[in-house]
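Hey,
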Amino acid sequence: MILKLIANTRSTSLKQRVNGLLSYIQNPENTRANNLSNYIRQPFVSQPAWDEDALLEKCVYANSRNFLDDDPEQQKIEMLQTASLNRRVEDPIVHLVASFKKFEVPSIEQIEQQINILLRHLNAEALQVQYAMHLDTDNAHYHVVINKIHPFEKNQHQQHKCVNLGDGWILNALHRSAAEIEATQGWRSEPNPMFVYHQQSKTVVRNPDYQSAPAAEKLPTQILDQASRHQQPSTLQQKIDFAKSYQQYVETAVQNILRRVNNWPEWHQALAEKGLTFEKKRNGAVFQLKTFSEQITFKASIFCQKQATLPQLQNTWGAYQAAEGIRPKAVPDQEVQSRVVSPSGKSKVHPFHLFQPQDYLVAELHTIYLALKTQKDQITVQHQQASAKIKLDHESYQSVERDIKIKQQQQKYPSIALARIQTALDDQHAERQQHDRAHRRSQYALSHRQLTAKFVKDELLKDELGQRLWSSSTVNSAQITSYTDFISQLNREHPLVIAQQFLLDQRQSGNFIHAPNPACRQAQLIYDKQLKHEPIAVMNQYGIQVFSQYSIPRIQQCLQLIDAHIPIEFSGEPSFQQQAKIALQHRDHQIEDPNPRHELPQLEQIASADLEIFFDQLYQHFQQHHNLQTAIFKANLLLSCCQVNTDRLERNLKEYSDEFFNFNLQAPDRNNLMLRLKSVLCTQPIAQNRQYFNAQDLDCVWQIALKLEYNHLPRKTARIINKPRPEGGSKLVIEEIVLPERDPDFLNEVMQELQFESRKSRLQQQFLEISEISSTSNSLGACQRIEIEVKPLPHFPADRYQIICQFEHQFYIDRELNQTAFIENMYQAYITVVSPLEVHVRDALFLAHARYGEVMISGNEEFKTQVEAIAQQYQIPVIRKEHLEQRQTSLEVPAQPSAVGVTEHERQSNRPQPDLTPPVEPQQRNEPKPQKSGYGNDFGF
């Protein structure tokens, strides 16, 4: 979350500020009405006709503290009167905004907890506070208005005390509050937080890994805002970025020279050999670097160590001496730019700080926008010149022409009174001014109409892709004042627009492949090989940032762009790190994508009982890494990508919440969550929403469908129902509901047969193969708990097998025989051999040896004997499971349980379930627990 202090830039009066702010947070102006109105007139096929008034609901919750009256209008008067009790304070009103990420919607209880934390860090618990939550923008947020004047405490001057919020460090207090709120409520932290919260000590401390922005990059807010509007760095930013590309060379050279020189002549001579000069400028000094193509100037106090500043050098060597007769030699550009070093502590730097905003732009769209902006700026200049000419004409009339014309008219018409002449001339001038202004406005509008028509014809209709770009033929270029405005005018289902909207949300992705690549001087987007317009990562000199829709084949696409000799390190989500390590293991062998287009089943006709099962399983899947609201939001969003109607999602959520008390989601919170979900569905196409989910999330949906197909999920369920008593109160009733048996061809209902026939058969085959693992014990595992390492695969014929990652397993399929040879668990150290052929057993043994070292054999006697014979032939260390247990017993070491190596993900999904017998705790949920994707097969090492 972001906590931001809103400055009073308009310098409004106290009365205007109090009335304006309190009125706004209660009834905010809708800044999104036009966009939503345009969007909801073209709803998706799976969605109903949207209720515009409901979607534009703004203030969904408001509250206040430390007021005598509960009426908001009376609270305005009360706050104004309290603020007036100390006349020495010019602006005692403080305005704060707390904003959340795209899929985060806090509950009312959480908002109250956040206000408690915020006021405690600000020392404002006794002050008058109003706050309200809004849902009228792309992010859920709430406003806080604080009156710094204490209601009853007085200072030494016998005036009401003005509380110094945060002891004078209000921004630090906001950072501390955000750290505690994120840690205690489970929200995702912003990149590079200034403070962190310790759960054990319950204190907020400064983040030791925090990296402040260099002084050279701290630009005025106006420049940063302008750059953000047009997604284009300012001239000053470009100069700074250009200088930074040579900064490492200058710093290294200066540090080495300082160690070995003792006076000014030696200093100048040593610098000249490196292509540098050191010159005095006013009270400071600058370095100048000379290359074959450029001459770049660096300010010593900013870009280099403090020891190289003019005062420091003068203290050491005396008064400054200029370089006489010493000329620097030019340095090759390649030698300078090749010295790129990754930031210190690279594993701790969030990729957000390694990329620039312009690295996330779709070049085709931004180029069109800049061309439009250039021509639009020319029209603006002409408009301003015409306005200035009209204004100059008016000033000239007032100062000179008016008196001259009055005298001329008096001489010509001496009988007419002076007042009548003055009035007539003023009326004529006003009429002419009004005509000129109207003509200027009409010309301005005409210029923009012509620009739009010409622009659409010349720039966008060159190919079929461009012809589908504009969402409306009535676009007015005068209304496009930023790159965001430009994108909003385009067809939202256009592939390039979907890619751009998705990229703007991916800047904070923490999935990063650390791999120094000095040759990649300019960041470049990486697009999927199958879906040409879908970006999956962005690469620069520090590595590759991977976006949310990752999969093992897509990670492999990224790894292929990195030199094989460069050391690689992964950071980010646990799921990403696990899949990235698997992709690195098979770096030289392509893993085939079983779902290259990231398709999902079509659930628009699904039965209500099955929809509840889908939602329940997806909610539990997302709950492992998200808090309650985000897990609910993402589960519903994923179901909407499966064409489930939003009204059905809302009804299902209500029934789910009413039946199960541990869900702990009150009706207002549920309504706010669905309102935010509808807003996302209105403004984003399904193709974009699907990109927020990785392959593991999509596999979870297919697993549920297959479990329902083969009745692996129980159809008879017991539910807790809270039934009200006639005399009031309520009681818990366990009611058994018998659901009807399902059609055995359930999967046909959720898949389009013509398009998915081959995929359907493969899904079913892999599902059955994993389901049958429990019936066989022929497996090769590790003798001890080990970390998965990248090892060479001796004697393993990788080209013989087609490798597919599905359902948290790796399937090795013999290409010639078109049958599965063996299956490797992606997160546990064992390989199950499903083929009796000796060549497959041998290759599985090679793979297990490369993965685990000494191999543990378990299974029937024939299989063990077969493996031992092959192991003896190739000198591979193996041991039977029973022999390993005996060896552990002899060493008096407890045998490892079968679930050793099971990840936190499996431990959570296999936790014991509550009994259905009374008494029943209100917070327990009595429902059979769904099986894990391994279907109950927890093989150990």
